[in-house]
Amino acid sequence: MKRAGTMILAGIIFLLLLLYVVNTQSPWDLQQVDGVLERYSITTNEEFSAFIDDSVRLGQIWTLIDEKNLSVMLLMLGGGVICIVAGVHMVLDKLFVKRFYEKPDMRYAVRRGVLLYLFLVGLLLLKFIGGLLWYNALAILVLVIAVEYAFSSGNRVRTETRTDNA
Fold first, then answer.
1. Which of 9, 73, 109, 116 is the most buried (most CB within 10 A)?
2. Residue ranges for the chain with pLDDT beneath 70
3. What CA–CA distances, in Å, run from 125 to 11, 74, 140?
């Protein structure tokens, strides 16, 4: 349970760092945004929001985003999501699956946290390119489930082989 608490605490720290980065750094490439504001004579927040919505819908938002700041934000989000999901997974594993003297398996918890994070990033990137449709999201979900199944069945085969040889 100590590891689960540590993972949840680390996840909270990552999310606090993400909050700090979001408040201090802009995800926008300011030179590109200034050029767009001048080119299309955008003066109000409503016009800019409408332009951003159109850019997302058309998949052209990448020209306005600063990739360095976005990657830092995604890494902080990834650390937070992975650690919190792993911590909660280990708590639930200990409470409902493992016996009293058994420790929860951290590898499975972290792997499932990584898969959930990759699913969320996949949805976000689909949204950025204007391709967030139900069948694309479903395809990513099926891919994540297939990867989890492949890892789980591979672990079962190795475990059964070890017990047969022993």
1. 109
2. 155-166
3. 22, 11, 11
